[in-house]
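This section describes the prediction task in plain terms. A model, or a person checking by hand, is given the sequence of a single protein chain and must write out its three-dimensional structure as a string of tokens. No templates, partner chains or ligands are provided. The sample shown here is typical of the held-out split.
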Amino acid sequence: MQLCWRRLNPARVQPRPALRTRSSADTDERGSVLNHAVAPRTRCHRFSNLRYLLGKLSSGQHHLMKRWLFPLLLCVFASPVMASVVTITTESLPNGTLDTSYSAVTRASGGCAPYVWAIASGTLPAGVKKEQSRSTTALDLSGSPTAAKTYSFTLSVTDCSKHVSKKSYKVTIRAASEHVVDLSWKASTSKDIAGYNVYRGPDGSTWKKINASLVAATLYDDSKVANDSTYYYAVTAVDIEGKESKKTPAVKVFIP
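The expected answer:
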């Protein structure tokens, strides 16, 4: 898939190749970051031969050991456990456009499920609602903004151990879109293709179809994007029986 964005001109829309990329080059390669708990070091170095000590215990010669040996053995056998703490991992949310479908996802990890999400302070953009995912590890924000302004709010998530994580966000809803994303892709080699569907998402894993009907050509313009936001796009092919193919690799684009 290829794409580029351009700025809208009220008089005439001129394509601007400020960003053009291919799916093979722009496929979002995500990895997961694992936080490993590291047990603290101890100073139990006086007895390096643990087998010798255990042999003394099994042979009944424990009377030879001094009283301070028991705390020492506790120090050897004890292994501190450091549990992970729930953390909101989504750093920012996309902006939106007035009376245009809005979609965003906030994710959390760590701690223990189920999670409980809440708005700790501030308000969501007017017309946008929150819905907790089935796994409770994500909070979906969706709707059509009804007021053009900047909204500041803080989301909180609480895990089953009552640990809490909070993250503050700022989302700007603009009165009109200032850019258009031009998408293009190679035609399917199948002979019974009826058209294509175009999907857009905020993170490359949550998708929403943005075309009202099947796209017959291999071109599509998305004019419902907001400034200072990142979007992901993917395309599927649909045959004459209505069967849909898998999505193409995701293409990432940033709107300045």
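For orientation: The chain is about 10% helix and 35% strand.
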